[in-house]
């Protein structure tokens, strides 16, 4: 990236069938997505430091590693605490990396970077991100490839804030067809028990969000015959946005974007399909941790689609 590039990196635009996506190379970030000139995600300016992880690719783990500490393959590791107020390692290591541009076409772009072996994550993994747009929406595939000589823990997911239409999260209805929710502690959002959805977390039919607070991971999704789960956000006029994802993402984090900064507060709903649960580096295979053997790759895909 040249020194006169915008703060969010080199800018790339792809479009098709009335939809336009703008990608920034720092974090392989989805900076904006519009369909028929209507925002489907909360955008930000090209020459702006990306706020609140908007649109970033999360790798080699999504969400939190509690206390930044985990044990893998018999060795203890300690990551930098990038969420200092809660003392966790948040959203991986690639979000502030300037990705290389491998290829660009009118409707497709491919970016890549290497997460180098380092303190806390002594593994080398190539992260490849493909964005492709067509009449069915914006499709993203993130592939992790272990180019090192030892197994590596891996997880990924996106961080878009979906927008249904006018207003804020409080004005929209959410359909979240998940049977289970991962409970968390109220202060540090540390995951505790996986339980059936209940009360404010039972959103299996279209439900007004109102003032409810959500910052939780869900699983046990109702899926179609092809294994696709769909989370739908709609405004009062019937317009909205969907997030679709396959069985390579058994989890999804949903967050009502409650924020101390007024202009960020509840302006979009974070919907983050994930290959693993929060703190999977500690919870292991039971909560979706992927182990990449040397030379192995693991892809995961999701789609944002206008309603």
Q: Using the alpha-carbon principal axes, give the shape.
A: globular
Strand content: over 45%
Number of helices: 1
CATH architecture: Distorted Sandwich
Overall tally of structural domains: 1
Structural class: mainly beta
As a whole number of angstroms, the C-alpha radius of gyration is 18 Å
Number of strands: 27
DSSP helix fraction: under 10%
Name the poorly predicted regions.
Answer: none
By CATH reckoning, the class would read Mainly Beta
CATH topology: Beta-galactosidase, Chain A, domain 5
Biggest pleated sheet: 9 strands, antiparallel
Q: What's the pLDDT, averaged over the residues?
A: 97
CA(first)-CA(last) distance:
36 Å
Strand order of the biggest β-sheet = 10-11-12-13-27-23-22-17-20
Properties at a glance:
307 residues; mainly beta; Beta-galactosidase, Chain A, domain 5; nine-stranded antiparallel beta sheet; six-stranded antiparallel beta sheet; 1% helix; 45% strand; globular
What does this molecule look like?
With 307 residues, this protein is mainly beta. The protein has one helix at residues 280-283, and strands at residues 11-16, 19-24, 29-35, 38-39, 57-58, 64-66, 69-72, 75-78, 88-90, 100-105, 108-115, 125-134, 137-146, 152-154, 157-158, 161-162, 173-175, 178-184, 191-196, 207-208, 215-221, 229-234, 240-245, 251-255, 269-274, 290-292, 297-306. The chain has one domain (11-306): Distorted Sandwich (Beta-galactosidase, Chain A, domain 5), CATH 2.70.98. It contains 1 helix and 27 strands. The strands form 7 sheets. Strands 10-11-12-13-27-23-22-17-20 form a 9-stranded antiparallel β-sheet, with no helix packed on it. The chain has a 6-stranded antiparallel β-sheet with strand order 16-25-24-21-18-19, with no helix packed on it. A 4-stranded antiparallel β-sheet has the order 1-2-3-4, with no helix packed on it. The model has no long low-confidence stretch (mean pLDDT 97).
């Amino acid at each position: 990236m040249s020194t006169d590039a915008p703060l969010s990196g080199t800018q790339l635009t792809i479009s098709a069938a009335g939809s336009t996506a703008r990608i920034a190379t720092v974090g392989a970030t989805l900076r904006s997505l519009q369909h028929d000139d209507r925002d489907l995600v909360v955008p930000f300016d090209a020459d702006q430091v990306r706020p609140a992880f908007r649109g970033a690719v999360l790798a080699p783990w999504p969400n939190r590693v509690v206390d930044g500490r985990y044990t893998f393959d018999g060795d203890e590791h300690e990551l930098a605490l990038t969420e200092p107020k809660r003392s966790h390692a948040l959203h991986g290591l690639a979000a502030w990396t300037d990705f290389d541009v491998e290829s660009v076409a009118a409707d497709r772009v491919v970016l890549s970077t290497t997460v180098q072996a380092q303190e806390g994550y002594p593994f080398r993994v190539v992260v490849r991100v493909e964005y492709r747009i067509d009449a069915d929406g914006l499709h993203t595939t993130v592939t992790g490839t272990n180019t090192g000589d030892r197994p590596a823990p891996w997880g990924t997911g996106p961080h878009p804030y979906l927008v249904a239409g006018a207003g804020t999260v409080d004005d929209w209805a959410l359909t979240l067809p998940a049977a289970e929710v991962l409970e968390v502690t109220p202060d540090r959002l540390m995951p505790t028990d996986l339980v059936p959805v209940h009360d404010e977390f039972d959103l299996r039919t279209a439900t007004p969000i109102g003032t409810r607070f959500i910052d939780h991971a869900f699983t046990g999704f109702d899926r179609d015959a092809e294994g696709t789960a769909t989370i739908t956000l709609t405004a009062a006029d019937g317009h909205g946005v969907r997030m679709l994802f396959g069985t390579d993402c058994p989890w999804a984090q949903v967050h009502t974007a409650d924020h101390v900064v007024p202009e960020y507060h509840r302006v979009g709903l974070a919907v983050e399909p994930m290959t693993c649960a929060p703190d999977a580096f500690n919870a292991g295979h039971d909560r979706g941790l992927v182990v990449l053997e040397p030379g192995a790759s693991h892809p995961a895909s999701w789609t944002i689609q206008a309603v």
